[in-house]
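note to self: dont lose this again. the chain is below, predicted strucutre after it. 354 aa total, dont forget to put it in the shared folder this time
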Amino acid sequence: MKKTSTRLADGRELIYYDARDDLVRDAVDRRPLDPTVTTSEIRHDPLLGDAVAVASHRQGRTYHPPADECPLCPSAGERLSEIPDSAYDVVVFENRFPSLAGDAGRCEVVCFTSDHDKSFADLDEEQAGLVLEAWTDRTAELSHLDSVEQVFCFENRGAEIGVTLGHPHGQIYGYPFTTPRTALMLRSAARHKEGTGGRNLFDDTLAREIEDGARIVLEGEHWVAFVPYAAHWPYEVHLYPRRRVPDLLALDDAARAEFPRMYLELLRRFDRIFGADQPVTPYIAAWHQAPFGPLDEFDGITRDDFALHLELFTIRRTSGKLKFLAGSESGMSVFINDVPPETAAERLREVASK
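---
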């Protein structure tokens, strides 16, 4: 992999990740951009103990542009985009409309391919592996920022999810705190460790799923994918490396080599859940990594007690119907799942690639 860092016209950082090491990336951003102005602010909720990012500048962000005006496609002639070069493999840049910025963290955009009409599931294994390298590199870089305590790599796919740009892309958030969902996992891990004489919650969860087998979707030599016992979403899969590691940086070469095949197969199965004549499945794919900030509040838990894993889920519960977060989910955070996890796992096994 070759990495080339440059700057956009307004000073934001842009990084090219190339599979070939002989490519020269010296294209200049010719747009007359003013410096980016952000108003990100973190407000802490004294009742729930969590935090909210207030970012009013995002009201003016790009919204469903036509394909020939896509800001994530390469620049071509006088059609200038966020990517100055005329082609790219994988590219990462600072978001022009970030939810988090400055002392309140950082937000980046990851473009998986220059082909506007593809999705992640259409990538080959080499390209998917390059995206993994980009995620890993950005995790390492953002972890060194004083304003970042946790790095979150994720993809939102589909208009139903709220995606406003059709180009295949994801995002990376550098939070200035440990996120509430991760804090819940760490507290559960601490209770489990104390209650079992030092056993690891993530290890025991994975071992239990493997032993049960009813919710296993896909197994490889180094990764296991399963529908969790208490899945929140109609179709939800968790992908774990067999060897527990705290973050993407700690994956060994064997796990890195196998990941593209495993992940691409899961995404392709998701697109077949509801039938070949149905639109592509909207989903969220979220990497969960151990925070880089202090963990003193979690009763003896260290970063090494956390298990890197990817959670993939869709808000579509059946053909033409979405799972909305209504009163119980939105008001009380109690999910009601219409699809039994064992049924979801069975369906995801049925639609395996031939």
